[in-house]
Write a structure and sequence with these properties.
5-stranded parallel sheet; globular; single chain; alpha/beta
């Protein structure tokens, strides 16, 4: 049976066209084939979605349900995500270009797990009683913040949506979700599944559209209580300004990264370090905010380690994303591919040594593919070392001492993730403490789960997705002081 793609928005429990009837064309980066027309939301559509979300919140159709009821509904939501896993994975791969194996086994499973985990948390998180004098009772409670605006990126559209939907729903909020115009299809399908699971109409609305036309009105809307954004640092700064210009809404931004991956000479398993170093930068075509795009290698092992790293590259040959054996797919669109190629050209121009890749491939398909690219002799002031590329480009930087490695690693406006490879436990702790990053991996990279927070320091933003800490973003803290006598 052919896949039927519905590009209309979901507002107040119904599939609807945009108010002005405008659409944009959605093309697959696999072969540049048109997939469908998608509703192009603007201010009027955001107004409708926010009004629906506010009405649902005020009516307490979701917030007023018992913790047990909300938990059961969210678990059913997760179950239905898994029941629709093949369609969701296919939409994700066709829309974004990532390998179908990753969409099916990682993104769908992680999205469902997020919904299930936060659903289970609903009736297990307790409020507080303060230690006040005998004649008083002081309760410290968390309440849903109200209407949450969520703007998610194109690189993990399904997963990032659920990272925000799940804790926001668990807290009792209503949501208006604006997916990226580059990959909106899985978010729209998820909204249908939410309704099937029993999420009341108006509680989860999805309005696709361009950032300036739909994202900005959502961030500026005075009836939105919180804006949660994942994307570039440049846009995150604008979101923060809009939040202040409007109603001083809470603004949580999980932003870019230029993560250092530090390999010391005493690393006991260089093969594993090389495998993780290649896998983490070339996974998802390098389109990951936490990708370890700066590889810091101690000079004495540099040549040996580079040989091991380059030996991993055949495992990431770009292929057809719909082929189950493919490990590296297409860039999300032509614009992103061209942007990455410009960064590669700047690396060459500034004196970095190209060891592998650096070119477009599979041009006969009509899609947008880049070979895994590795530069050596990179200095930390080169453009490829300072700016987020969001593509399969790895920069190798050499260091001689622990102090030098720490200085290079922290010499960035970002602070999302980092890694340390060493068999010296004292060194691992010392370096991890001094790295200015939200997550520091030791003898691994990109290993985590839903129980730990994800987010960064500095210009990587202030947002934290996952873990119980995410609930703090979507709740207000209230003190109720009662005089007993």
């Amino acid at each position: 049976m052919a896949l039927k793609i519905d590009g209309r928005a979901v507002i107040n429990g119904k599939r609807v066209n945009s108010v002005d009837g405008a659409t944009f064309e959605c093309f697959s980066p696999i072969d540049n084939r048109k997939l469908c027309d998608v509703a192009s939301g603007k201010s009027a559509d955001i107004d409708l979605a926010v009004s629906a979300a506010r009405a649902a919140f005020n009516a307490r159709t979701w917030a007023g349900k018992s913790p047990k009821e909300r938990k059961q509904t969210m678990i059913k939501f997760a179950d239905l995500i898994l029941q629709n896993r093949e369609e969701l994975a296919l939409l994700e791969t066709l829309d974004m270009g990532k390998p179908i194996t990753a969409s099916l086994n990682v993104d769908v499973n992680s999205a469902a797990n997020s919904l299930r985990w936060f659903g289970e948390a609903i009736d297990k998180v307790y409020d507080e009683i303060a230690p006040t004098p005998e004649h008083t009772l002081a309760m410290i409670t968390r309440e849903p913040i109200g209407v949450v605006g969520a703007i998610v990126p194109w690189n993990y559209p399904m997963l990032m949506a659920c990272w925000k939907i799940a804790p926001a729903l668990a807290s009792g909020n209503s949501i208006v979700l604006k997916p990226s115009e580059k990959s909106p299809l899985s978010a729209l399908k998820i909204a249908d599944i939410a309704l099937e699971a029993g999420i009341p109409a108006g509680v989860l609305n999805v309005v696709p559209g361009y950032g300036a036309e739909a994202g900005s009105p959502l961030a500026l809307h005075t009836d939105v209580d919180c804006i949660a954004f994942t994307g570039s640092t440049a846009v995150g700064k604008k979101i923060q300004i809009m939040a202040g210009q409007s109603n001083l809404k809470r603004a949580w931004c999980e932003l870019g990264g230029k993560s250092p991956n530090i390999v010391f000479a005493d690393c006991k398993d260089l093969n594993r370090a090389a495998e993780a170093g290649a896998g983490s930068i070339f996974y998802n075509q390098g389109e990951s905010c936490n990708a370890p795009s700066r590889l810091l290698v101690e000079r004495s092992i540099k040549d040996e380690f580079i040989k091991k790293l380059l030996a991993e590259l055949p495992n990431y040959k770009p292929g057809n994303p719909l082929d189950a054996s493919t490990t590296m797919g297409a860039m999300v669109d032509c614009g992103q591919m061209e942007n990455v190629l410009k960064y590669i050209a700047s690396g060459k121009a500034q004196g970095a040594k190209l060891l592998s890749g650096g070119d477009q491939t599979r041009t006969e398909t009509g899609g947008f593919y880049i070979n895994p690219t590795v530069f050596d002799n990179v200095t930390n002031d080169m453009t490829i070392a300072t700016e987020e590329i969001f593509g399969p480009v790895l920069s190798i930087i050499t260091f001689d001492t622990m102090e030098e490695a720490i200085k290079i690693a922290n010499d960035t406006p970002y602070g999302l993730a980092a890694a340390v490879w060493t068999q010296d436990i004292s060194k691992a702790h010392m370096v991890a403490k001094r790295l200015r990053a939200g997550t520091v991996h030791v003898n691994s990279y990109d290993e985590d789960d839903i129980t730990v927070p994800f987010g960064g320091y500095k210009q990587s933003g202030n947002g934290r997705d996952k873990s119980l800490h995410a609930l703090e973003k979507y709740t207000e803290l209230k003190t109720t002081w009662i005089r007993l006598s």
